[in-house]
Amino acid sequence: MKKIEKLVIKGMTRRFGDATALHDFNLEIAGGQFITLLGPSGCGKSTALNCLAGLLELTEGEILLNGAPVQHLPAEKRGFGMVFQNYALFPHLTTQRNISYGLEIRRVPRAEREQRVRKALNMVHLQDFGKRYPAQMSGGQQQRLAIARTIVLEPSLLLLDEPLSNLDANLRNEMRIEIKRLHTELGLTTVYVTHDQSEAMSLSDKVVVMRQGRIEQIGTPQEIYNRPQSLFVARFMGYLNQFPGTVIGRDGEYWLIQTASGEQFTASSTVAESINWQTGQRVLACIRPDETLADPLPAENHVQGHVRLVEYVGRAYEILVQLADERGTQLLVHSAHAPEIGTPLTFGVQPERLLLFPDDEMTTGHTSAEQDLVDVAAMRVER
Ligand SMILES: Nc1ncnc2c1ncn2[C@@H]1O[C@H](COP(=O)(O)OP(=O)(O)OP(=O)(O)O)[C@@H](O)[C@H]1O
């Protein structure tokens, strides 16, 4: 199979009638990389993957495999392997036959076939399950079989569409490690679709965050996590707390903001347009709950409120803090200690972890699918 040196996707667009499911998708993938497409339901992740796989025709754009266009090739001629969310196993074939089927179609000689099936079974730790039928195996085993069936064909590109979504939390973690191991050991190039940010963070060399059929941000997990370039990406990365303020000045790389109740904070911004911000710019200041500091309290950037709820979330207490502002803002804070309900609480946040985004309709207007995400955040705060 042709190894990937470079896969370049240029202006990939897919429309269904009047609706654009994918718009001007551009991405470069180097051989050996693990790429994740991350975003909420309906943002176009599967459409992008299916276009890459050759299961959907592109309305516009190009896919260049080592410089040669492949967008007009049928799926089977691209040499890519796809693992589907529902596994798509053959129920009437044993594990061995499920794996060997693709090799039979390709007329691989019997001896080589048997040897490759054995190797694939070992690779996914299913060597003792060769004679079982899919219905006789657990969800995790079926998932491993789906992967084995694909990698036995030595695909130049492995495409995985939410492969862990049908598994319970423990198995998901186990299989996540398994997928990364196979990717590394076999030197695969992988494109993985998920709506789970922790999966994207732990697996990827590069994360592509998508929203409404468009790419919102591309970066390493560290870049996406620490330097989200829009409020949408920030929320997706767990910056659930937000409160409004106004820019009142600049201090080197930091911004000085003031809330409606007169408190001042030093904060950062990862948004490119922030270089044009003037005094008076309305902003939303965002903090991840696990980046708030109640004990020890930092020297500056203090927020004061009252404890409304306390919940142990393992390693820390998650505290719902009610601020005294007229908007009734509630924030989630993490602390090593559990305070009494109703008591005052002061916490702080380091200026580089308090991120500012423009507070306008463009950044706060959400589609219904995105609203689900926002609702999840809101639900946590409403408890
Ligand atoms: N065959 C189709 N006909 C019409 N619209 C479609 C079709 N397939 C997808 N869409 C639309 O395109 C958009 C993107 O869908 P897609 O399945 O790519 O999203 P997704 O991010 O993979 O979502 P999920 O995580 O829910 O699978 C959605 O609005 C969807 O309704």
Automatic annotation (TrEMBL):
The keyword DNA-binding does not apply. InterPro entries: AAA+_ATPase, ABC_SmlMolc_Importer, ABC_transporter-like_ATP-bd, ABC_transporter-like_CS, Mo/tungstate-bd_C_term_dom, NA-bd_OB-fold, P-loop_NTPase, Transp-assoc_OB_typ2. Residues 7-237 form the ABC transporter domain. GO terms for molecular function: ATP binding. Transmembrane segments: none annotated. Keywords: ATP-binding, Nucleotide-binding, Transport. Pfam families: ABC_tran, TOBE_2. Gene3D superfamilies: 2.40.50.100, Nucleic acid-binding proteins (2.40.50.140), P-loop containing nucleotide triphosphate hydrolases (3.40.50.300). Signal peptide: none annotated. This is ABC transporter ATP-binding protein.
